[in-house]
Amino acid sequence: xxxxxxxxxxxxxxxxxxxxxxxxxxxxxxxxxxxxxxxxxxxxxxxxxxxxxxxxxxxxxxxxxxxxxxxxxxxxxxxxxxxxxxxxxxxxxxxxxxxxxxxxxxxxxxxxxxxxxxxxxxxxxxxxxxxxxxxxxxxxxxxxxxxxxxxxxxxxxxxxxxxxxxxxxxxxxxxxxxxxxxxxxxxxxxxxxxxxxxxxxxxxxxxxxxxxxxxxxxxxxxxxxxxxxxxxxxxxxxxxxxxxxxxxxxxxxxxxxxxxxxxxxxxxxxxxxxxxxxxxxxxxxx
Length: 286
Description:
Number of strands: 6
Order of helices and strands: HHEEEEEE
Shape: elongated
Strand content: 15-25%
Largest sheet: 6 strands, antiparallel, barrel
Helix content: 55-70%
């Protein structure tokens, strides 16, 4: 074998040894990393468990602290309520004490007033005895006057009965007269009788319309005058027609219905000078 071959064999052997050492080192390093990874995972799991345990402990501590704080707060609120109630009771007791003092003062004042009233009543009793004596003295006079007034009352009652009888008699007479007036065709109302009892004022007007249809077919005449000029039911007016400055008498009407500015009359007397028409004149005095 040549020198080169030997060198190559030696080099190959050296390289093989070196490669084996390298593989052994790599295998050793890989094994160490796996062990470290397993160890790290174990440590991480333990740490996580410790962390969870620690968090649970913290949560328990927080819960216990919250409960303790709530207990302390409730105790503080209860203490405040009891303190407020105590202050309220103190105020009530103070008010009751003040009221009791006021009532005591009032009782003292009332006692003083009662004493004064007792003395005043005693003095009044003395004076009342004198007044009583005077009253007894005047009682007989009052009894006598009372008897006289009783006699007057009896007389007045008798007079009242007589007046009631006269009043009833007058009412009966009035009813008979009212019935008689209605039978005669007049209105019993005093306002309506005013036209018959009082003379009408002197007025001038015109005929507005005429028509048949009154009681018993009589002619109705509407005029331009009413109660505003003083006319009333029952007043009589004369109807005439102006002709060349001369008046022509046409008839007489008696007012049967009177309004404020108008009135309707019944023709109670007609003439042969013509029929009453719209535009003819009416007057209360010829």
